[in-house]
Structures are given as C-alpha cells and as structure tokens.
Write a structure and sequence with these properties.
Distance between the termini: 43 Å
Number of helices: 6
Number of strands: 11
CATH class: Alpha Beta
Structural class: alpha/beta
CATH topology: Glucose Oxidase, domain 1
Low-confidence stretches: 203-208
Helix content: 10-25%
Radius of gyration: 18 Å
Number of domains: 1
CATH superfamily: Putative cyclase
Shape: globular
Order of helices and strands: EHEEHEEHEHEHEHEEE
Length: 208
C-alpha cells in the first residue's frame, strides 16, 4: 500500500502459528499515519492533545461529502465557499485523488488544500475535515505546514487517506474511530459513512 515517503512501510510478520503454537499471532510494524488515519493537535503542536483526547462527538455524527472532482491541483477558498460550510460541520472532500490512493507508488502531485482554504475552514470553524489522499496539505508547504497548523490550532480533526472513490457526494452519518493510543500524534482508523435516512415527520414514517 502507498505510504508517505518518510514513513515506515507496512510489515507483517508471523510470531506464532496454529500449526506450531496452537494459535496465530502477527507482529505489525507501521507508522501512525498509515492508510486512513486521524490526526490530532499533537501532530504539530508541542502541547497539543493526543489522538486519545479527541472527543467522540467530533468523530461520530452527520457529515457532508463535497464533490471537488475537477479541481486541481489545489482547493482554494472560493471552491469551498460555494458549498457554504457551517460551524461545527464535518466535511469530507472527494477529489481526483481517488485513483492515486489505489496506486502503491507515492504521487507528489495530489489535490490538497491551499493555505487560504485551510484558514477559511479554521475560521468557521468546522469540526472535522477529511480528504482522499495521505495529506491534506501540498508538498510545497513542507516545513511550514500552514494548513495543518491552521486546523489543528483550532482542534479541528483531520482525517487523511479516505477512500471516497465509490461514495457519492451528499449527506451521511460518519463513524471515524482511531485506536486509543495515549498521547499519540495520529492513529490508523476505520472510517465509515452511512447514507442518512430522512424521516417524514408529519406522517411519522419514511416517505414512500
């Protein structure tokens, strides 16, 4: 699977087998930013909260998937303004990164947020923002990290490496659960979206 160039590659090795030991145990070696992962303020802020301190109500609840396919290479503030994101909203960005995420070779030309777009979301502020590649920020800002800092300074949860290729834009329920690793900067996570069910309040049932 694709990993960030400086991150550990994923290695799985057998510790015990059913045949020899009566049970199977596997040793996992991977970085905290492997695959789909959730980042906490501790990723860039010295005294930032670890991934175990992210409130669950930020990770579970309604979300909106925005269709930003065709926008490349950078998502600008005006692209996001068209969707009118609201304070406390969970936003997932579906871009043209879908094919890149499935390529085991790292691509350095992926769609990301511009610093202005990152500050726009931070100023609202949204509760969570996710994107469909390994970073929400361009390689061109490596060293200064204005997008990450703008979001994490406001305790906005960042989710990277989402597989949104087969998910239509729209409104969903989100469940994003990192491993509860004390004080850690990030954690691999299982992130699910479920189509929201609309209720006909007057009739007390779903519309036919």
């Amino acid at each position: 699977m694709v990993t960030w160039p400086a991150d550990p590659i994923v290695r799985l090795s057998s510790v015990c087998t059913v045949e020899e030991d009566g049970a199977r145990v596997t040793h996992l070696n991977l970085g905290s930013h492997t695959g789909t992962h959730i980042e906490s303020a501790a990723h860039f802020l010295r005294d930032g909260d670890g991934v175990d301190q992210i409130p669950l109500d930020r990770l579970i609840g309604p979300c909106r998937i925005l269709d930003l396919r065709g926008v490349s290479p950078t998502i600008e503030r005006e692209h996001l303004e068209a969707f009118r994101p609201r304070s406390g909203e969970r936003i997932l960005l579906r871009t043209d990164n879908g094919s890149a995420l499935g390529d085991p070779r790292f691509r350095d030309t992926f769609v990301s947020l511009s610093p202005q777009a990152g500050r726009f979301l931070a100023d609202i502020p949204v509760a969570l923002v996710g994107i469909d590649y390994l970073s929400i920020e361009s390689l061109s800002t490596e060293g200064s990290y204005p997008v990450h800092l703008a979001l994490l300074e406001r305790n906005i949860v960042i989710v990277e490496g989402l597989d949104l290729a087969n998910v239509a834009p729209g409104h969903y329920d989100l469940i994003a659960l990192p491993l509860r690793l004390e004080g850690l900067d990030a954690s691999p996570a299982r992130v699910l979206v479920r189509q929201r069910k609309t209720v006909n309040r007057r009739a007390g049932r779903k519309p036919a």
